[in-house]
Amino acid sequence: MKAVKVGICGLGTVGSGTFNVLTQNAQDITRRAGREIIIQQVGARRDNPAADTSNTDVTRDIFEVATNPEIDVVVELIGGYDIAKKLVLLAIENGKHVVTANKALIAEHGTEIFAAAEAKGVSVMFEAGIAGGIPIVKALREGLAANKINWLAGIINGTGNFILTEMRDKGRDFADVLKEAQELGYAEADPTFDVEGIDAAHKLTILASIAYGIPLQFENCYCEGISGITQEDVEYAEELGYRIKHLGVSRRSEKGIDLRVHPAMIPEKRSIATIDGVLNAIMVNGDAVGDTLFSGPGAGAGPTASAVVADIIDLARSIDAPAASRVHHLGFKDVDDTQVLPIEEIETAYYLRIPALDKTGVLAKIATILSERGINIEALIQKEPLEKDVKDDGDVVVQVILLTHTIQEKIMNDAIAAIQALEETQGDVTRIRVEHLV
Asked: Domains of the chain: which residue ranges?
């Protein structure tokens, strides 16, 4: 059979990893694909000593790869938005299939890119963009295709998971662990995308579209980071039998679909609560299969290259097939118009930490505020004050810890505002959503 010729654009960590996997595992890859896969050309601004390209055609113009008539598949590994989008659309216009690890590109411009690909009869593959080496896209799109997906929840950013794990296991503060994560290369110099949830929101946007057949709508994904999580909250969560994880959650209900990224308390007995360090994990609940868990390394040259090459192999297997017979980009031929719910409409349980004066009647006032709004308390702890909790005027501030039953977010917002307005409340009320994942 005719060989499939590949052009790799970008020779950074993932690009060099992809080059090496394709060359080192060439024999097994040929056996799996049923045909040879050849690296025809590499487009990179500079060489990378991690990949020996001495016998490969290398160009400094990545757009030359997209227009090269010899190339069947363009692999976009340069990252970013504008140039990557231009490259991908040019490759599609020239009849090339595309493989990318760029979740931001797919989450924010996937609708346009997929439409262009369908018009030209080519495929765009993006397994490597979500959770590194975990084959979650293929699992959702194909392995679980018989199921109506009820919900999914994932630890889909390794940097955030590393930070929260260190805070729990070693009692360290957020800022201290973030600095180490940057030194280790887990977090960028500007860590905003990781610690504020934007990276996870890109991934969740794509996963939800595949799970439910809804349009990509990153703009409707609620996004909250972990920079506000304190060592106190981590310890209190453990005391209550929970662990704090930075979670992407999407759930189908009669009202619509949740699409949200935020810190969440998970019961410590749930399997996903045990996923630590830089590992990723995604739970998926389907009506036929029940709960499933996919876990593994979410980043790095090897794991991400594994997913990139798997997509190339899939394309090689079906490259001669009619476009209509290939798996649709998002797994559904028709788009479902079920709305994504605003965060105010979602329903979940809550952890509240309230700094309040240690005075008679304070707990009664808080309980009354919650009761008037139909919010039931599951657990209540009042911590003993420490020396630092004694104010200059002699007043003592204590931490009141509450766990509530499930309630609508907008009702909880109203309750928190009322608690915040109490004269006895001595600071911001901390709120962490509680996810039992059932």
From this structure: 4-133+301-325, 143-297, 346-434
**Would you name the residues annotated as active-site residues?**
203
Q: How far apart are the first and last CA of the chain?
A: 48
User: What six digits make up the tokens of 370?
Assistant: 């919650």
- Residues 6 or more apart whose CB falls under 8 angstroms from that of 310 comprise 127, 135, 138
Non-local (6+) Cβ contacts of 354 within 8 A are 366, 399, 400, 401, 402, 419, 425, 429, 430
- CB of 338 closer than 8 Å to CB of 212: yes
CATH 3.30.70.260 applies to domain 346-434: yes
Of 286, 118, 81, 30, nearest in space to 193 by CA: 81
Quickly list DSSP for 113-154: HHHHHHHHT--EE-GGGSSTT--HHHIIIIITTTS-EEEEEE
Average pLDDT over residues 20-38: 97
Global confidence as pTM: 0.95
Alpha-helical (H) ranges within 213-342 are 231-239, 301-318
Could you tell me the pLDDT band of residue 387, with boundaries at 50, 70 and 90? low
User: What residue type is 295 in one-letter code?
Assistant: S
Q: Which CATH number fits the domain 143-297, given the four candidates 3.30.360.10, 3.30.70.260, 2.130.10.10, 2.60.120.10?
A: 3.30.360.10
- 4-133+301-325 folds as Rossmann fold (3.40.50)
C-alpha 10 chain-centroid distance: 23
* Residue 331 token pair: 């797994």
User: Can you tell me the distance from the alpha carbon of 161 to that of 235, in angstroms, rounded to the nearest whole number?
Assistant: 16
Residues whose CB falls within 8 Å of the CB of residue 405, separated by 6 or more in sequence, listed in order: 349, 375, 376, 377, 378
**In the predicted model, what is the mean pLDDT of residues 283-309?**
95
